[in-house]
Design goal:
CATH topology of the largest domain in chain A: Butyryl-CoA Dehydrogenase, subunit A, domain 3
Structural class of chain B: alpha+beta
Strand order of the largest sheet of chain B: 2-3-7-6
Shape of chain A: globular
CATH class of the largest domain in chain A: Mainly Alpha
CATH superfamily of the largest domain in chain A: Butyryl-CoA Dehydrogenase, subunit A, domain 3
CATH class of the largest domain in chain B: Mainly Alpha
Number of domains of chain A: 3
Structural class of chain A: alpha+beta
Largest sheet of chain B: 4 strands, antiparallel
Number of domains of chain B: 3
Strand order of the largest sheet of chain A: 1-4-5-8
Order of helices and strands of chain A: HHHHHEEEEEEEEHHEEHHHH
Number of helices of chain B: 11
Oligomer: heterodimer
Largest sheet of chain A: 4 strands, mixed
Helix content of chain B: 40-55%
Order of helices and strands of chain B: HHHHHHEEEEEEEHEEHHHH
Radius of gyration of chain B: 21 Å
Helix content of chain A: 40-55%
CATH superfamily of the largest domain in chain B: Butyryl-CoA Dehydrogenase, subunit A, domain 3
Distance between the termini of chain A: 37 Å
Chain lengths: 402, 379
């Protein structure tokens, strides 16, 4: 294996010299930069940091330089991640284009499509959202009904998508649409890119139990979409979607370790909210819950590292599939644990009597319930593991994805 | 630190697997049990293991060791866990060897380690005095009288205690009953007058003993290292034992889970393989995710012994606590998912179930290690 030490040192020096001090502090959701036509920076430093990273192609470190990426190897990309984490550098650009659509375009897009979209993603020019689920197609995603009818020179799209994250602030949407209703449900699906400024596209925010509205329902009413926006072959969108889901699940598995919220680590919360006797938490039940949680996170952290090392060594293991399930379940556990540790002080919703941080914890707890539902529910993840890793026989009408 | 095996370690694991599947399958343990074998393991098998270098995997080359480190030892133990192979590996090659390496004088190391590597010496750590792991709760006394010492007390749950050539007895030279100060470890040949060994037959058909010492005369040369100073290294020895045992337990869990998944595909009820039922699929899939965590923990723990031994305590407790819980869950699920045949002696699953319960208690149960982990983390 090549010696990566020089790269690490060079990266460390560059980050030290170029990451503004303010961009090394924890990020609130309001301070994240998501790009797009309507995107704005929370500060001059945020803009400076973004531009410096963009110039090196480090908003998309592992993408080819031909499309504006950094051209790094997987190992170098990991080192960059580690070095950014070391100085607590903020992510310069948050983007579903970077995390999800881009990797799919690199694999399935035509050269023309790559030229059209990848650099715009790297530069944060457009904000993307995802149109997969529908009101009647959740875990059974393949039964989706939004149709794209071939009208010769364009598709005519009708239907609606749900759980479209930040659709009301996005410029384009990547969608799964039905292009052939006559064949087996997975076989009649295509992957389509739609400019949300097109006539007939509209969005409505959905209020969640956390009080937030980060998701929308998105409606398509006789929307005309150019044929050039089809990714991959007609009726082969399911393969693209599956590849993309892998990226989404990997992302969700990692969220536990890189939460944008200013959360109190459970051990710190214990010191702040619980009685100690002789250096031990007096409440034996909470002490036991805390150590169980910490051990689990320790194990999950090690498994992330192993997963990466296996990938780098080229020995493909089965670790990746387990991570979405384990990671998101652990996030829920953490939020339940924080509430238990904080007692009545962890129940604040608004107004006086609670610090903003405490109120955030309550809302984060409500929000965390979505973690094991979005991106394929825990139950669907277990179906997939049973089928692909354990190779157990298919149940009649099993809820797997292929 | 690597969480992926290198070529050398992979090769060692493959050799171990082939050897054990052929020479020490679960049926060998069944035969030892059914014949009420006096030794409790196959002496010829042990000599073959010694020839493969397994007695000396962690020993330095100067004393005839392989010097493959704990990761090397771990892959071998994982394979012994897969077939439940009974042998002196854990008590002698891990715990005994570590005690001499970490606590022994140069003379003791030069005398004993080559014998151990050559398979001419087996050891057993006589530590526990109650029915729960309490390594510092030592009442057995080592009292000085002139130039001599006298050992008196009782030990229980001494692994390989009835078969080992020499015992390593943890005794108190001074200090309060639960203190880390004032502990000594004594090398004691099994046939010394005043030593009474009573073999205990446990659920797992492996070896342990209760041992009583009545005014056993001890010379200064028999004390491992210095008198009263064993508290400085005992934890490190135990942590090595915990990590090695976790590796063995991982092998057992992998095997019992593989057998369970195979059964889910084979057994037909209601006209379909029972593995097509989602109720069972989810339980199996959840076990699979737990297994992924356990693999990462064990690899990290083994590598920590070799590369960052000063950080061993936390990961050793994580490893033992995690494998305790997983071994219990995986063996219980194995029996349940096998259904009626799972509770018959004819099937090997019962052997895994019973071995798991014994390993749970060796070097600390889950409560012990959760408490230790929390204390090390400052709460």
């Amino acid at each position: 294996m090549e010696d990566l030490q020089p790269f690490r040192e060079e990266t460390r020096q560059w980050l030290e010299a170029h990451c503004p001090a303010s961009q090394r502090l924890p990020n609130t959701p309001e301070e994240q930069y998501w790009g797009g036509r309507r995107g704005s920076f929370a500060s001059e430093d945020a803009q400076l940091w973004f531009e410096r990273m963009r110039e090196r192609g480090w908003t998309a470190p592992e993408w080819p330089t031909a499309y504006g990426g950094g051209g790094l190897t997987a190992q170098q990309g990991q080192i960059l991640k580690e070095e950014m984490k070391r100085i607590k550098a903020r992510t310069p650009l948050y983007s579903l284009g970077l995390w999800m659509l881009g990797p799919a375009l690199l694999e399935y897009g035509s050269e023309e499509q790559k030229q059209q979209h990848l650099r715009a993603i790297v530069n944060g020019e457009l904000r993307w959202c995802q149109g997969y689920s529908e009101p009647a197609a959740g875990s059974d995603l393949a039964s989706l009904q939004t149709r794209a009818d071939d009208q010769g020179d364009h598709f005519l799209v009708n239907g609606s998508k749900i759980w479209t994250t930040a659709a009301d602030r996005s410029d384009w949407i990547f969608c799964l649409v039905r292009t052939d209703p006559t064949v087996k449900k997975q076989q009649g699906i295509s992957f389509l890119l739609i400019d949300m400024a097109t006539e007939g596209v509209s969005t409505t925010p959905i209020e969640l139990i956390s009080g937030e509205s980060e998701f929308c329902q998105t409606f398509f009413d006789n929307v005309q979409v150019p044929k050039a926006n089809l990714i991959g072959e007609l009726n082969h969108g399911w393969s693209v979607a599956k590849a993309l889901l892998v990226h989404e699940r990997k992302l969700m598995a990692e969220i536990g370790g890189d939460s944008p919220r200013q959360e109190v680590p459970p051990v710190e919360a214990a010191h702040r909210y619980l009685d100690f006797i002789d250096g031990r938490i007096a409440d034996s039940e909470l002490r036991s819950s805390l150590v169980t949680y910490e051990m689990r996170m320790h194990a999950i952290g090690l498994t992330h590292i192993r997963s990466f090392e296996e990938r780098a060594a080229g020995t493909k293991g089965s670790v990746g599939l387990a991570m979405k399930y384990l990671g998101t379940e652990a996030v829920k556990d953490k939020n339940e644990l924080l509430l238990a540790i904080m007692g009545s002080q962890g129940l604040g919703w608004e107004g006086p009597g609670f610090t903003p941080e405490e109120r955030d914890t309550t809302r984060a707890w409500a929000m965390s319930k979505a973690m094991t539902i979005a991106g394929g529910s825990s139950e669907v993840q277990l179906n997939v593991i049973a089928k692909t890793v354990l190779q157990l026989p298919q149940a009649p009408q099993a809820a797997t994805e292929s | 630190m690597a969480l992926v095996l290198n070529e050398e370690q992979r090769l060692l694991a493959e050799t171990a697997r082939d050897f054990l599947q052929k020479n020490a399958p679960v049926s060998a343990l069944r035969a030892l049990r059914d014949s009420r074998d006096e030794l409790g393991y196959d002496a010829t098998l042990w000599q073959d293991m010694v020839e493969l270098g397994w007695a000396s995997v962690i020993l330095p080359e100067e004393v005839g060791g392989l010097d493959f480190g704990f990761t090397g030892l771990g892959v071998v133990l994982q394979e012994t866990g897969r077939t439940l192979a009974a042998s002196p590996l854990l008590a002698t090659a891990v715990v005994g060897a570590s005690a001499l390496l970490l606590g022994g004088t140069e003379t003791q190391q030069a005398d004993l380690l080559p014998q151990l590597a050559a398979g001419k010496l087996t050891l057993a750590l006589a530590l526990e005095e109650s029915h729960h792991h309490q390594p510092y709760h030592i009442a057995t006394r080592l009292e000085a009288e002139g130039d001599s010492f006298y050992l008196s007390g009782e030990k229980t749950f001494v692994l390989d205690g009835h078969s080992a050539d020499t015992l390593l007895v943890v005794a108190r030279s001074s200090g309060e009953r639960n203190s880390r100060e004032g502990l000594s470890v004594v090398l004691l040949p099994r046939d010394t007058p005043g030593v009474v060994i009573e073999r205990t037959l446990m659920a797992d058909s492996r070896n342990a003993a209760n041992i009583r010492f009545t005014r056993v005369a001890i010379t200064a040369e028999q004390v491992v290292g210095e008198v009263g100073a064993a508290g400085q290294w005992l934890d490190k020895v135990l942590d090595r034992g915990r990590v090695a045992l976790a590796a063995e337990m991982l092998g057992s869990v992998e095997e019992v889970f593989a057998r369970t998944v195979a059964w889910l595909k084979e057994r037909v009820q209601f006209g379909v393989p029972i593995g097509s039922f989602q109720a069972l699929q989810h339980r199996a899939a959840r076990l699979q995710t737990e297994l992924e965590l356990a693999r990462s923990i064990v690899l990290q723990a083994l590598a920590t012994v070799d590369e960052q031994p000063e950080q061993l305590a936390v990961i050793a407790s994580l490893a033992k606590a995690n494998l305790n819980e997983l071994a219990k869950l995986a063996t219980n699920e194995a029996v349940q998912m096998h259904g009626g045949i799972g509770v018959t002696d004819e099937l090997d699953i019962g052997f895994f179930l019973k071995r798991a319960r014994v390993t749970l208690q060796i070097f600390g149960d889950t409560g012990f290690h959760k408490d230790r982990y929390a204390a090390l983390r400052g709460y």
